[in-house]
Every structure is written in structure tokens, then in C-alpha cells.
Write a structure and sequence with these properties.
Elements (H helix, E strand, L loop, with lengths): L7 E5 L4 H10 L5 E6 L2 H13 L3 E6 L5 H15 L4 E4 L14 H27 L5 E6 L12 H21 L4 E8 L2 E2 L14 E2 H14 L3 E4 L1 H12 L2 H12 L2
Parallel strand pairs: 1-2, 1-4, 2-3, 4-5, 5-6, 6-9, 7-8
The protein binds NADP nicotinamide-adenine-dinucleotide phosphate.
């Protein structure tokens, strides 16, 4: 298992939660970071922590929904450091959303917040990494919710499933060019933004623990990483059950 050191690491969605914590955990590896998110002040605070721990860091406030802004971030990383060796596409959001209350616009918004934000970085990164002698690693923070339709998370589950499928294709097509793809699938993680949303969160883990799983995946580069194991086992079991049984269990879990 290679530790991530002396590498250019781009983290999209690094101003809080899992992305910020992954940056902190990699910061003592003398890496060169490019971190981005919309909230400039929060991003600058994370950048300071990274520099204090011994890595270089360029923080670029940008909205991942804007394809040109995303391409500009990748270009800025290359201008500053010459390459992007590891990219973690971590921006995303899964609010509590029941199908009897959502609008068409809500579904489209959640799709954009979890799928378009990936595509907007994926395409310029593939173009960049194809030109690098050693290719590169593109990782995506997916979710165990992307493996099946989770109650109160339908639009989010659908968007994460779409991202997984796109990345699965990219992995097959781009392996000969040295570009590797890792999808990480956390269960519930106790991050600040979702702390008061009222969703039941069985087997929830801390953001520090979630970030350790992500860092391990960046080091080992599995195609898929699922954690924590109790939630991953639950999802695997539900997927194997006949639909009437899994529907009953999911309804019970969703009602808390
Ligand atoms: N928490 C969980 O239970 C859980 C479980 C499974 C998977 N995940 C996934 O983990 C990832 C990180 O989520 P988190 O829980 O750590 O929540 P978080 O603290 O809200 O982190 C999300 C990050 O993405 C950024 N972001 C969101 N929309 C963006 C946009 N349009 N452009 C640029 N940056 C954007 C946010 O920064 P700004 O707001 O500053 O832009 C923030 O830095 C997400 O993809 C989420 O779906 C979370």
C-alpha cells in the first residue's frame, strides 16, 4: 500500500465534511493540494491547515455546477503544479426528500448537485490525465445509497447510481491509458450539514473514520470501496432479497 506523498491532489468539495477531513489526513505527506468548493472562507481555513501540516495548497472557490469553472480549476492546477495525480470528486448533497413531496425541479436539482458536478470535473480530468505519462487516479465519493433506491433519498440515490455507472464505463475504457477510477461508497456519516435533517441513520460513523476509509481507498485504488461494513452488509442483503421483502425492511428502516 503506497502512502500518498509528493503528489498533486485535487479535492472538489473540500470546504467541510469528508472532503476537508481527507485533505487534513493527507496534509503531512508533502503533497501539493488544489482544493475547491463554493464557500471561500471555509476553504481558506482548510488551506491554512494543510499548509501548516507541511503541504502546498492552492484554494480556488468555484461552483462545480459550472462546467467552465470546473475546467478552469483543472487548468489552474496544471499551471501551478504541472499535473493532477489524484482527484477526489467529493461535492454532493443528499437532503431528505420523499417522492410524494418532491417537484420535477427538485429531482433535476439533486441530479445536478450529485451528477453534473462529477461530469464537469471528470471530462477535463480525463483529458488532462491522458496527456500525463503516469495517467492518474480519479476517485468519486459515491454512497451506499447509490446501490439501491433508499426511501426519502430517491433523487439522490438515482444521481449517485448514474455517476457510478458513468465511472464504471470510464474505468474500462481508460485503463489502457493509465487512468484509474475508484468509487467510494460511505454509509451514513456524521457531517455537520446533515446533522439535523431528521433522517434515521443506522450505523452512522464519524467523518474522521469515513475520511480514513477514503484515504485507504486512494492508496489502494480498488474499483469500489464500501463502508462501514454493517451498512454495506445490510445493503448487500437487501439487494439479494426478493423485492417485496426488501421493500418491507426499507419501509421499516425509513420510519425510524
Ligand atoms: N454525510 C453522509 O452521510 C454521506 C454518506 C454517503 C456519501 N456522502 C457523500 O459524501 C460527499 C461529501 O459530503 P459530506 O457529507 O462531507 O457533506 P458536506 O460537508 O456538505 O460536504 C460537501 C462538500 O461539497 C461541496 N459542494 C457542494 N456543492 C458544491 C458545488 N456545487 N460546487 C462546489 N462544491 C460543492 C461543499 O462545499 P460548499 O458548500 O462550500 O460548496 C462541501 O465542501 C458528498 O458527495 C455526499 O453525497 C455523504
Amino acid at each position: 500500500m503506497a502512502r500518498i506523498t509528493d503528489r498533486t491532489v485535487l479535492i472538489v468539495g473540500a470546504s467541510s465534511g469528508i472532503g476537508a477531513e481527507v485533505a487534513r489526513q493527507l496534509a503531512d505527506g508533502a503533497n501539493r493540494f488544489v482544493i475547491t468548493a463554493r464557500r471561500a472562507a471555509a476553504l481558506a481555513t482548510v488551506a491554512e491547515e494543510i499548509r501548516a501540516a507541511g503541504s502546498a495548497c492552492l484554494d480556488i472557490p468555484a461552483d462545480a455546477l459550472n462546467a467552465q469553472a470546473a475546467a478552469d480549476v483543472v487548468a489552474a492546477a496544471v499551471t501551478e503544479y504541472g499535473s493532477v495525480d489524484v482527484a477526489l470528486l467529493n461535492a454532493g448533497q443528499g437532503p431528505d426528500m420523499s417522492m410524494d413531496r418532491v417537484s420535477v425541479a427538485d429531482v433535476a436539482r439533486i441530479m445536478a448537485l450529485n451528477y453534473d458536478v462529477v461530469v464537469n470535473y471528470l471530462i477535463p480530468l480525463i483529458k488532462q490525465m491522458r496527456s500525463q505519462p503516469d495517467g492518474g487516479l480519479i476517485a468519486h465519493t459515491n454512497s451506499l445509497a447509490g446501490l439501491m433506491g433508499i426511501p426519502r433519498q430517491g433523487p439522490y440515490s438515482a444521481a449517485k447510481a448514474a455517476a457510478r455507472t458513468l465511472i464504471d464505463t470510464a474505468r474500462v475504457e481508460l485503463a489502457p491509458q493509465g487512468i484509474r477510477f475508484t468509487s467510494v461508497h460511505p454509509g451514513f456519516v456524521a457531517t455537520e450539514r446533515i446533522s439535523g435533517d431528521g433522517l434515521p441513520k443506522p450505523f452512522q460513523i464519524s467523518q474522521e473514520r469515513a475520511a480514513r476509509h477514503v484515504v485507504r481507498a486512494l492508496e489502494r485504488e480498488p474499483a469500489q470501496a464500501y463502508f462501514p461494513w454493517p451498512t454495506a452488509a445490510l445493503v448487500r442483503t437487501l439487494r439479494a432479497l426478493p423485492t417485496p421483502f426488501s421493500t418491507l425492511v426499507l419501509r421499516k428502516l425509513a420510519s425510524g
